[in-house]
Amino acid sequence: MKITPLGERVLIKQAKASEEKTKSGLYLPKSTSEKKEGIVVDVGLDKNGRPLPLMKGDKILYGGYSSEDFEIDGEKHIIIKFEDVVAKVEN
What we know:
The strands form two sheets. A six-stranded antiparallel beta sheet has the order 6-7-1-4-5-8, with no helix packed on it. A two-stranded antiparallel sheet has the order 2-3. It has strands at residues 9-14, 20-21, 27-28, 37-43, 59-62, 68-72, 75-81, 85-89. The protein has one domain (9-17, 30-89): GroES chaperonin (10 Kd Chaperonin, Protein Cpn10, Chain O). The two termini are 29 Å apart. By secondary structure, it is an all-beta fold. The protein is 0% helix and 42% strand.
């Protein structure tokens, strides 16, 4: 299935959150350790019709609380506003 975000939006494959354990041995649920990072799957266009400055495969960090969640081919994906992207992670 091919999904292309419209406008200044970014489709990302969200990084999987893992269970974390505190020093005292308590396990924190995945919802408290949700990572705000993902891999860019596709990007929309800016207001002038130019591609946004992200490419497929870029690893990003994002903030904000507004997103649309989707399951595509059994994997969790979200669409976020480009303005919620806070950093591109380089190796």
